Amino acid sequence: MDHPTNGRRELLARLPKVELHCHLLGTIRQPTMAAIAAKNRARTTREAIEQFYVRGEKPVGVLHIFRELETHILANTEDFYRIAYEYGESIAPHTVRYAEVFWNPTGTLKQTHLSYPELQGAILRGFSDAEHDFGVTCRLIPSIDRQASASEAVEMVQLVIVNRDANVIGIGMDYNEVDRPPELFTEAYALAKRHGLKATTHAGEFGMPWTNVETALTQLRVDRIDHGYTVLDNPELTARCAELSILFTVVPSNSYYLRTLTPEQWAIQHPIRHMARAGLQIHPNTDDPAFHLINPTQCWERMVTDFGYGLSDLRDFMCNGLSGAWIDEEMRRRWLREWTVEFDDLVAEAVVGVDRDDGESNTAEMNM
Ligand SMILES: [Zn+2]
């Protein structure tokens, strides 16, 4: 009898959500990538593209796919328009109503003849048309490529400032954190902050130390942290982040722990299981949904199935997302008010529905 799972999944699909940690290049559908590669006569073979969408038990991560996209596949503004539009289309059925999406300009600017304003404009047009057609709001977070130089990071921030658009709300930083700690990018973050941009960074990913989380907060003065799992290695820092209500955008499908933990360890040791229980504000995200083979509903479901969280936790996560989103205060207050009512109504309706169908055992399942 698979009804409880279906009921839970339907409920999770209908819960109103934000998404705060998703990379534009991590959202490209396989047919879209194949079509763009063929159109641009990319060297990337159809077989290579198929392999990008195979997720093994011990996934190697997705950064090499991003480099292939930047270097050999994406070549025109229409490519960026299409992936931005399709992302908006893809999240609408999961009741994601608002998303803040990362995009690294540096690699594409180096590898193509496209300019920053052309690229930013194409992505924002894709978001705008998706909002019109599907009712989802997407905002852009240009991100520092931390494997490039500190001066290139400053240049990236300057481009954001010179081409300032109300739909470009802050900066992030990603790519490989190993040997690229946050302090290398202090100047770029200071520049962004001086110009009123919000800021976040990937930190404590790939098993990198808790000191990267602390440096990001104290030196880069970020408003939130992406991943941040190793914060748990320092209880004092964990308590401070809890006290300050720092939001951690976590990724249940993150490759690093799939590679390094056995299934038995996963159930007990995975940091996401412990972060909210340690008082941290967390919010689940898909990161690279096309390559993690996950959608927002499945992402939220993993918080239940993999990490043992229940409905009241999911309600907290929903509110955490709104608290940490870079939206104006009036909208935040309104959405917090409306979404909590909606959440409670959906849960009540789901429990009543299950009661009617299958009796008590499924009510317990609904309580998660
Ligand atoms: Zn990420």
UniProtKB/TrEMBL annotation:
Residues in Adenosine deaminase domain copies: 16-336
Pfam families, per database record: A_deaminase
GO biological process, one term: hypoxanthine salvage
GO molecular function, one term: metal ion binding
Keywords assigned by UniProt, alphabetized: Hydrolase, Metal-binding, Zinc
GO cellular component, one term: cytosol
Domain of life: Bacteria
Cofactor annotation: Zn(2+)
Family membership: Belongs to the metallo-dependent hydrolases superfamily. Adenosine and AMP deaminases family.
Protein name per its UniProtKB record: Adenosine deaminase
